[in-house]
Amino acid sequence: MAVAVAVADCLLNLEDTSAVGQAMAALACVALATRRRFPLAVFLLTLPASLMLDIVFAPFAALFTLAERSRDRRLLTVCAVLFALASAAPWPLSDFASHDRTWTVVYFFYTLATAAAPVLLGQLVQARRDLRRRLVEIEEAREHERLLHAQVVLTRERAQLAREMHDVVSHQVSLIAVQAGALQVAVKDPDVKDGVRAIRSLSVDTLDELRHMVTLLRASGGRATELTPQPTLADLHRLVTTSGIDTELTGELPPNIGTPAQRALYRTVQEALTNVRKHAPGARATVRLWHEAGAFGVTVTNTPPTRPSLPLPGSHQGLIGLRERAELLDGTFEAGATADGGYRVTLRVPSDGDA
To answer: Based on the domain organization, do 27 and 48 belong to the same domain?
Structure first.
């Protein structure tokens, strides 16, 4: 559609035009077909036609596309000035000396003001596109926060339930088992003795089951671990590929890493990628697994953001939790900005602390 309108614009201004001018007009119209792929080059190709003919649509379309895709406002200003110069300058250029210079200056500023329209419209389209993308990111972040909040609530409930079962139910079942044992020794009737023995046996079995349940609840409700099923390094590749970030996973780890250390490595990568998505929109990340003499770990590094980030709600406890995980494993956790404006987090676990 844009090419057809540009052709019509050129045909209306081809009267008494040289072959060179016609060729430049044709080049400008044909180049518009690739303006979305090469916006700057296409705009520059429309300038000769603007110099030789009184056309506006082809350079305007190219300038709009460039403004829609470029974030360099100085470049856009230079392009608008170039278009105004090409439109205001007389053709052939040898006529400049005899041309009315006052009219040339007036027409230059008029054209420059007109060129602001496609530039501003293109920037508006770009801003709307960025805003839609930002709203999606905010919604994803809020959904993630809601999930984390639900996990925290469930974790606390499980921890409280584990305490109640340990302090109340287990204590009472233990008393039943003790009383049944004492009664088993005291009674003489064989039938009663068998019944008491069955009560004591069931009480002991129930107590074992309760202790097992308390252990599971504490494992999913304690500070060092999360909700079951627990993630391991086998889930790391899926975490990276589904993070929504351009992420590269490199390196490897020893095969005999304990389960607590695997969870700590997984949670470190998970928290780091979540922070990249929230605070560094458009950044790329690298997850590097490594091991050396006496230690192993993971380093997550991201590039600077390509778009400004909006302040999002958060608990501000993520890095604190990762540091506590590292301390539980006798390891270290480091986080900080890089020299190029990115961010890096590193978890280091000693080889004898991964049990």
So the answer is: yes
Evaluate the omega torsion of the peptide bond into residue 229 and state whether it is cis, within 30 degrees of 0.
Answer: yes
Residue 170 and residue 216 share a domain: yes
Per-residue pLDDT tens, the chain, 355 aa: give them: 667 776 666 666 666 566 777 787 777 787 888 888 888 888 888 888 777 777 777 888 888 888 988 888 899 898 888 888 888 776 666 555 555 667 778 878 888 888 888 899 999 999 999 999 889 888 888 888 888 888 888 877 877 777 666 655 765 676 677 777 778 778 888 888 888 888 878 877 777 777 777 777 766 654 444 444 567 788 899 888 887 789 999 999 988 888 888 988 998 998 898 888 778 888 999 999 999 988 999 999 999 998 776 554 444 556 887 888 888 888 999 999 999 999 999 999 998 755 4
Range of the domain at 151: 140-221
Q: What is the DSSP string of 232-295?
A: -GGGHHHHHHTSSSEEEEEE---TT--HHHHHHHHHHHHHHHHHHHHHSTT-EEEEEEEEETTE
Please indicate, yes or no, if residue 111 is contained in any of the structural domains. no
Pick the last residue of a domain from 66, 99, 132.
Answer: 99
Q: pTM of the full predicted structure? A: 0.44
Q: Total domain count for the chain?
A: 3
